[in-house]
Amino acid sequence: MGPAILVICSQNSMPSPLRVAQRGTHKTRTFYDGYWPENVPDYERTREHVFALLPDAPIARALDAGAGTGVCSLALSERAGAVVGVDISGGSLHVAQGLARELQHGNATFSQGDLQSLPFGDRAFDLVYSWGVVDHTVDPLRTMRELTRVLRPGGHLIVAVYLKTWLTPLHELSRYICLYTPFFPRRLFIHGIGAFVRFLEQRRDMINVRDDNINVEAQAEDWFFAPVKHFFSIEEMRKIYTDLGLSFEVLVERTGRFKSSSDFIVRGQKQA
């Protein structure tokens, strides 16, 4: 029998789930600190888009969960008595606060925080709105539970998330290559994608429901270089809503130019 070998693994040799989650959250914050301040959507177009998604019911207090630069928050503030915008990116919120002052929307306030652990009590809001943010959190199911927790009975939860298709694994492989290939030509790649999309737009009609960010290169950067990303089928999201005690309706089945790189938008009312 050969000599026995004793291997001792320190507790820090393998990352804990908590450490992995913290690392993913930090990467997301760092990415959007640089991304959103350079890519502020058009406010008037955002306003039209947000208004088309809102329920007819009065809104006393709304939460914009993942507010970014605050354009959705400020649109909501025209329909709600008060709006709180929360985002993990301090750089984005700095832009949001400046935009609120510029537009004189005094009923919109902003704070930095993690959607996976919201700093609010239960049943604090009549409306929770989250466009394209749940799918960038490390634990989207935990995020959905938090969004539902702070929603009052009878209130509405509006969420947009990435649509899962048969091409999703290929998209994720492409994103992995973009993120982790040493010396990847990021700027050249982004401009190439932008030129390709504009070429296609000139030759055929293309869906683009959320057209308030007209910079195709910015959209390409968010698609290929966001550090954390999840996809859902409509049926998966339906189950999440139902399990959380929410009704479910699909407002928009597809928002983007290509079905495989689109969001879909859903809304549900919290049961009493």
Describe the structure.
- This protein has 272 residues and is an alpha/beta fold.
- It has one domain (19-272): Vaccinia Virus protein VP39 (Rossmann fold), CATH 3.40.50.
- Helices cover 40% and strands 19% of the residues.
- It has nine helices and eight strands.
- Strands 1, 2, 3, 4, 5, 6, 7 and 8 form an eight-stranded mixed sheet that branches.
- Helix 4 (90-103) links the parallel strand 2 and strand 3 (108-112).
- Helix 7 packs across helix 8 (216-225).
- The longest helix has 19 residues, at 17-35.
- It is globular, with a radius of gyration of 20 Å.
- The protein starts with 16 loop residues before the first helix and ends with a strand.
- 35% of the residues are buried.
- Residues 1-11 have low confidence and may be disordered.
- Give the CATH level 1 class: Alpha Beta
Kindly give the count of domains. Answer: 1
Number of strands: 8
What is the H level of CATH, i.e. the homologous superfamily?
Vaccinia Virus protein VP39
Report the principal-axis shape: globular
Give me the Rg, rounded: 20 Å
Structure keywords:
single chain, globular, Rossmann fold, 8-stranded mixed sheet, 9 helices, alpha/beta, disordered N terminus, 272 residues
Summarize the helices and strands and which ones pair or pack:
Blueprint: H1 17-35, H2 43-53, E1 59-65, H3 71-76, E2 80-87, H4 90-103, E3 108-112, E4 125-131, H5 140-149, E5 151-163, H6 168-180, H7 186-201, H8 216-225, E6 231-232, H9 234-243, E7 249-252, E8 263-269
Parallel strand pairs: 1-2, 1-4, 2-3, 4-5, 5-6
Antiparallel strand pairs: 5-8, 7-8
Helix pairs in contact: 7-8
